[in-house]
From TrEMBL:
Span of domain Pyridine nucleotide-disulphide oxidoreductase dimerisation: 356-465
SUPFAM superfamilies assigned: FAD/NAD(P)-binding domain, FAD/NAD-linked reductases, dimerisation (C-terminal) domain
Protein's gene: lpdA
Cofactor note: Binds 1 FAD per subunit.
Protein name per UniProt: Dihydrolipoyl dehydrogenase
Gene3D superfamilies: 3.30.390.30, FAD/NAD(P)-binding domain
EC number(s) per entry: 1.8.1.4
Annotated coiled-coil segments of the chain: none
The FAD/NAD(P)-binding domain, residue ranges: 5-337
Residues the entry annotates as binding FAD: 58, 122, 153-155, 322, 328-331
Pfam families named among the record's database cross-references: Pyr_redox_2 (PF07992), Pyr_redox_dim (PF02852)
Keywords: Cytoplasm, FAD, Flavoprotein, NAD, Nucleotide-binding, Oxidoreductase, Redox-active center
Length: 475
């Protein structure tokens, strides 16, 4: 007889492992199935985020930032260096160790919270008495039954038509994190988050980086003023960014990759690079889930169809994260995972899509929450805007990083904060204050009246809020 569980979670990424832990905290007998393997074939929970996404990319960004500071900025501090070099293999080993620490941490949390972990691929077998029968295909095949099933199977990188990933020359986020030496020339198709972050890593280490973007604007989802500031900074750093291009044939060979494309002006060009990173989005992952066995409904994109509460068309089957609608962000998946576990317990889990922060961990960092100025204009909403440059912030000057600004958008009548957009140092940390403020329906005046420590980067947030009322104090 198969093992019976109150809740079975398929997928151990941010949405899945968090959902499993929260369900266990709420008193449910919970199992989590995940098939990621480490280099030795052992379990490596954490999904794309931990293994080939958020975590390893930040490790490499940190290493490459140290290298760039040593090569270009230490002298300004009176620090002299000779014979600066980079050991890529050691940098990658450190990245791998950071990933392992996170994998091991999740396994520890499962044990601490009494979540039963199954290492393998989970798939539906059939609806069964008291729930659903799930097959676990791993080292030893097992069958378990869950009264409730939470699907958190994530997403996969979208490949270019006619140019599949080989992870040697044509790279997804996975291959981009395992490049064994600094390529002389690196190409990026798509100015997506992972592309820009990985492009920044290898540019800092000496690669000549070219970005080919099909859209006529850079970072189309970002507030236009912020995107222009970022574009200016990246171009100054040496990233070559071509917008409005149409990519044609991609040829991969022993010498690298040749990309034929047409420029925005209609000129035919060929980009020859050693490595090509393709960053054109991600697609929901339901490979091997066997949804047809139980009649689980998918949409035309292959995403699992859910309602506002993450319920699928099947009773007691839920889905969260990248495999459903909404932004493909790890923290969005976590919030949905917690909310679903609480809904199963009869509570009222809540996720506010309008206050989910977005971050790009380049240098300068880019972070935002809420609506952009373009969205407010399109909606016909009357608003006020306020900006403050890091150039006028004392802590930014001391750091030696004064690129960028903080921008507030507030309702013209009520002064409610509608969006906050940051490009500059530590934007990923500064955005949290804006998220909290918006969750509590704060006004720009509220932030302007709060005492911020001096000297701190957060003072730029206060000053931008003051700027909404045209009364900055330091600019």
């Amino acid at each position: 007889m198969s093992k019976q569980f109150d809740v079975v979670v398929i997928g151990g990424g941010p949405g899945g492992y968090i959902a499993a832990i929260r369900a266990a905290q709420l008193g449910f007998n919970t199992a989590c199935i995940d098939e990621w393997k480490n280099g030795k074939g052992g379990p490596a929970p954490g999904g794309t985020c931990t293994n080939v996404g958020c975590i390893p990319s930040k490790a490499l960004l940190q290493s490459s930032e140290h290298f760039e500071h040593a090569g270009h900025h230490f002298a300004d501090h009176g620090i002299g260096l000779k014979d600066l070099s980079i050991d890529v293999s050691k940098m990658l080993a450190r990245k791998d160790q950071v990933v392992k620490q996170n994998n091991d941490g999740i396994l520890y949390l499962f044990k601490k919270n009494k979540v039963t972990f199954f290492h393998g691929r989970g798939s539906f077998v059939k609806a069964a008495d008291g729930g659903y029968e799930i097959k676990v295909a791993g080292a030893a095949e097992e069958s378990i039954t869950g009264k409730h099933v939470i699907l958190a199977t994530g997403s996969n990188a979208r490949a270019l038509p006619g140019a599949p990933f080989d992870e040697e020359n044509i790279l997804s986020n996975d291959g981009a994190l395992r490049v064994a030496s600094v390529p002389k020339k690196l190409g990026l198709i798509g100015s997506g988050v992972i592309g820009l972050e990985m492009g920044s890593v290898w540019r800092r280490l000496g690669a000549e980086v070219t970005v080919l973007e099909a859209l006529p604007t850079f970072l189309g989802a970002v507030d236009e003023q912020i995107a222009k500031e970022a574009h200016k900074a990246f171009t100054k750093q040496g990233l070559k960014i071509e917008l409005g291009v149409k990519v044609g044939e991609v040829k991969s060979g022993k010498k690298g990759v040749a990309v034929s494309y047409t420029t925005a002006k209609g000129e035919a060009q060929t980009l020859e690079v050693d490595k090509l990173i393709v960053s054109i989005g991600r697609v929901p992952n339901t490979i091997g889930l066997n949804p047809e066995a139980v009649g689980l409904k998918l949409d035309e994109r292959g995403a699992i169809v859910v309602d506002d509460e993450c319920k699928t068309n099947l009773p007691n089957v839920w889905a969260v994260g990248d495999v459903v609608r909404g932004p493909m962000l790890a923290h969005k998946a976590e919030e949905e995972g917690v909310a679903v576990a609480e809904r199963i317990a009869g509570q009222h889990g809540h996720v506010n899509f309008n206050t989910i922060p977005w971050v790009i961990y380049t240098s300068p960092e880019i972070a935002w929450v809420g609506q952009t100025e373009q969205q407010l204009k399109a909606a016909g909403r009357a608003y006020k805007a306020g900006t403050f440059p890091f150039l006028a912030n004392g802590r930014a000057r001391a750091l030696g990083d004064t690129t960028g600004m903080v921008k507030f958008l507030a309702d013209a009548k009520t002064d409610e904060i509608l969006g906050v957009h940051i490009v500059g140092p530590m934007a990923s940390e500064l955005i949290s204050e804006a998220v909290v403020a918006m969750e509590f329906k704060a006004s720009a005046e509220d932030i302007a009246r709060i005492c911020h420590a001096h000297p701190s980067l957060s003072e730029a947030t206060k000053e931008a809020a003051l700027a909404v009322d045209k009364r900055t104090l330091n600019f």
